[in-house]
Amino acid sequence: MKKLVAVINGESTLEYDRSVDLPANQRAYLDKMDEKMDTGIPHGQGNIFAPQMEQKAQFVADQLVMAIKADNEGLIAASMAYLASRLPDLKQVTAEEQVNGETKITLVYDQEYVKPEAINFIKPTQLDS
Question: What is the pTM of this model?
């Protein structure tokens, strides 16, 4: 099963199962999202006109993270569906809070999400010989 996972500060927040087919009306909505983004997406102080797919993906990933923080289920669903359907090799959207208060968002294509496991350390004096 190919999943797309949204990871916030190292923890899986959402998982999208690509094996579930989208209904026709949702696919049409994603096509309209593409058409609207083709006319331009906000970037910095201006817009990027006729953006490349990677620029669209980064914009949608930014929207996804904002939607997760705002608990906006509709935007979360649309963003995850868009990224999963348009970028079949995308495995994770990661967001890490930075010291300066900004959020660094990365699209990860080469690594599946693996839940971190706790490592328990023991004192050398507690080891059995």
Answer: 0.86
